[in-house]
Backbone:
């Protein structure tokens, strides 16, 4: 390979010039900070060489967005972060919670609220965060509806979003029983009986939810398993599919923004 | 792809239409391997999915044995007013398994409906027939009143106002020595005809009993 001519050094004042390398140290001496950065690059390169993850990251994060993109477009990721907050606080609440219908469930929640360091705070995040998530889901859905962002080719993403809405409401319903106080108990009685009023399959549905003909010991553990094992996995998987379609199809421009032909096209017309 | 297959027909398999098959083969090895791999996968997936599904759905079809719970001396219940009694509906779940039952002695002047003949004591469930909240007997008004959505029932548990779709459920009763025992629940329609227990919110008049079938595990007393 022919050797390329070296460019002359820019005429900088000597204070700004890089110091020449020390004798005997052909690459120049690195500061500890530079060495740490080099180590970081090495690790990232090692992983990327074996997974090509940086390409996926660029594909997901460095997309072109339409002109007119505004703060309303953040409602979807706000919902996702509300879900992540629920997932993290829920995992830590599960370390203390006991799904014991004969008094242990209420006692464990009382213990978290009154005794555990920051327990009231983490439980409050989970409790209020659930309402925040439901509100954000509806705002996100309203934005999609009023912007017309559900239209071709994004119908499937709307369908996935509706399933996510139903799963979120099911999360709220199953989570409401877990404190096992009077309100939780009677709200669940009423909620299960509302399910039972559906003709033909209603009675079977309410028996399935209760795990029997009457509210019993299995009802609470059933709701707990649905709340913490079944639904979070489903929701996480569907959020993945939702995001994939967003990245694949791109976002829509707001309905009021007008399509402007580029300068080249305009000149070509003339 | 399909065109290429048509062009390169093996002389051995012309009659059978299987490209690349050897003499005597009725199915290619590739197809056989694909099919058997899919079948093995389906069997493996079914082996854990079906038992898990049955495990989750099992309680719908389970029949629970009848329980008879002693509620007190038979003589303590008058025939013109209800006495509330707390009894256990589901054992081993503490307070969550308990319910209030309103009991009174059979009164031939009040209980004139033919379906009530032969019941020594009337035991009315406090579970509202609308959505299952606990109703309360209000002595002064001679009404059962539900706190949740305003269901109102008369002395016999028949609906007189609000959203409930049928009268209050009842329990079978029997006298064992001097003790009154409360047995399994049953539901009634607006004529007080008896049906196997239904959940609240499920009407039993007209086609209601067919729209809301009783649970498969329900046993006749």
Residues:
């Amino acid at each position: 390979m022919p050797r390329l001519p070296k460019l002359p050094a820019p005429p900088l004042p000597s204070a700004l010039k890089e110091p020449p390398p020390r004798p005997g140290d052909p690459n120049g001496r690195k500061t500890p900070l530079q060495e740490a950065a080099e180590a970081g690059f090495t690790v990232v390169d090692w992983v990327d060489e074996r997974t090509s993850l940086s390409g996926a990251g660029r594909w997901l994060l460095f997309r072109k967005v339409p002109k007119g993109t505004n703060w309303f477009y953040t409602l979807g990721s706000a919902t996702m972060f509300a879900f992540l907050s629920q997932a993290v606080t829920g995992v830590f609440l599960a370390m203390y919670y006991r799904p014991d219908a004969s008094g242990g469930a209420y006692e464990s929640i009382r213990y978290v609220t009154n005794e555990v360091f920051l327990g009231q705070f983490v439980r409050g995040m989970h409790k209020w965060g659930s309402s925040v998530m439901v509100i954000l889901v509806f705002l996100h859905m309203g934005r999609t509806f009023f912007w017309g962002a559900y239209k071709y080719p994004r119908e499937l993403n709307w369908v996935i979003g509706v399933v996510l809405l139903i799963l979120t409401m099911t999360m709220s319903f199953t989570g409401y029983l877990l404190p096992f106080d009077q309100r939780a108990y009677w709200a669940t009685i009423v909620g299960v009986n509302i399910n039972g009023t559906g003709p033909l399959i209603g009675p079977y549905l309410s028996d399935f939810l209760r795990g029997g003909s009457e509210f019993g010991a299995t009802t609470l553990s059933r709701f707990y398993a649905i709340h913490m094992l079944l639904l979070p996995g489903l929701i996480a998987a569907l959020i993945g599919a939702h995001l994939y379609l967003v990245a694949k199809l791109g976002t829509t421009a707001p309905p009021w923004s007008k399509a402007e032909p580029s300068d080249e096209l305009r000149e070509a017309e003339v | 792809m399909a065109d290429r297959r048509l062009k390169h027909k093996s002389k051995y398999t012309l009659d059978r239409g299987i490209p690349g098959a050897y003499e005597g083969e009725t199915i290619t090895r590739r197809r056989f391997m694909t099919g058997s791999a899919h079948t093995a996968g389906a069997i493996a997936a079914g082996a854990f999915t079906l038992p898990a599904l049955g495990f989750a759905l099992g309680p719908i079809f389970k029949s629970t044995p009848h329980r008879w719970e002693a509620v007190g001396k038979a003589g303590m219940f008058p025939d013109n007013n209800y006495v509330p009694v707390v009894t256990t509906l589901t054992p081993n779940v503490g307070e969550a398994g308990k319910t209030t039952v309103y009991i009174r002695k059979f009164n031939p002047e009040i209980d004139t409906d033919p379906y009530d003949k032969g019941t020594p004591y009337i035991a009315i469930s406090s579970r509202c027939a609308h959505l299952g909240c606990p109703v309360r007997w209000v002595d002064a008004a001679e009404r059962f009143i539900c706190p949740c959505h305003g269901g109102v029932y008369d002395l016999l548990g028949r609906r007189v106002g609000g959203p409930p779709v049928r009268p209050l459920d009842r329990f079978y009763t029997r006298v064992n020595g001097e003790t009154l025992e409360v047995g399994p629940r049953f539901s009634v329609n607006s004529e007080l005809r008896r049906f196997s227990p239904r959940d609240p919110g499920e009407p039993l008049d007209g086609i209601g009993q067919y729209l809301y079938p009783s649970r498969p595990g329900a046993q006749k007393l």
